[in-house]
């Protein structure tokens, strides 16, 4: 990354989001990382991280998924200080009723997952779109939605009695983000499947990587990403491809 590479991580208070902020801020000395959280005052781990880094390295910023006013405010803050954004990671997500079959899925839970996991990514992209387009980073502007294997309609989760709501919301997100790739030839847009870490993994008893391990692999992959090889692809954190 070059000097003053501007990054934004949505959903940064804990887990993978927090690990991504730490990895970006420590791996690249000249990176500036905006950490988007719903409640900045109630994000102790993020404040601890920021206090251990050089001043102005990590900016803890109020951000609310799918709230256009909040997303526009983040965009205006970054625009005023930098005029551009180089890497935007849409990490925030919610999982509810993980073990409910479709016939019993609470509608309000499903609506919330669509709001956060699908609409939230769309609103973030629209608000930060002009800043990404203004990037002059030598490796290109990068928009990275964190998806998951559950979002594959040809994957193993479809035949299992888990994650119906999460999978549907991530599949819808995948479609929108693949459209972003084809509509914007200047953008490097890549999906990352990272739902094998954090609370979801605890629910499924299948933790395979720590958030820190996954963050390191994701940032390495993001750093190396090129439009012709990574753009519009549904990739695992190790670079392998997921079925759509």
Automatic annotation (TrEMBL):
Superkingdom to which the source organism belongs: Eukaryota
InterPro entries: Fungal_SecMetab_SDRs, NAD(P)-bd_dom_sf, SDR_fam
Cellular component GO terms held in the UniProt record: cytoplasm
GO molecular function: oxidoreductase activity
Keyword annotations: NADP, Oxidoreductase
PANTHER family cross-referenced by the UniProt entry: NADB-LER2 (PTHR43544:SF7), SHORT-CHAIN DEHYDROGENASE/REDUCTASE (PTHR43544)
Recorded family membership: Belongs to the short-chain dehydrogenases/reductases (SDR) family.
Name under which the protein is recorded: Uncharacterized protein
Organism: Psilocybe cf. subviscida
